[in-house]
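Chapter summary example.
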Amino acid sequence: MIYYLLIIIGFLTRFVPHYANFTAIGAIALFSGYYFNNKKIAFIVPIFVMLLTDLLIGFYQWELLLSVYVSFSFIVLLGIIIKKRKWLWSLPVSILGSLLFFLITNYAFWQFTVFYPQTMEGLISCYIAAIPFFKNALAGDIIYTLILFSSVEAVRLLSANNYSIRKKIFSTGKI
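The structure predicted for these 175 residues follows.
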């Protein structure tokens, strides 16, 4: 069930009006790596969302597309790496994921397009020009990560508390 919900959220955040790069895909990738026990599913969910939405939005230069998909795969891997830690690690790790995405995809843009000269100055110019997109991606990653992770943890906490209360009621007859 959660897989479908994540796919819907990812799909919607790529299609509803939004700032450039302000989507839930990075958060979904981190969430998948952290919460899904099946690693194949963890990698498939965000990539499937991207493939599905790219089918509708349109594909672009394969090297750039590949850099995006590889970036999200690294973010899933980050989620897997922090799996044994408290969920609050998701916030600083989402920042790391945003930074990885920024570095990988903009390097690919510099490397595989003709917009910037193939020099160190060209690479720096490419990264500088991408800062507004990075800000949006970072904000989206942090906000959606906070929403996804805190929602699951709130449900877990409420479920645990309800279980404790029910157990207490049935064992003693009072709260």
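To summarize the output: The chain has one domain: 2-172.
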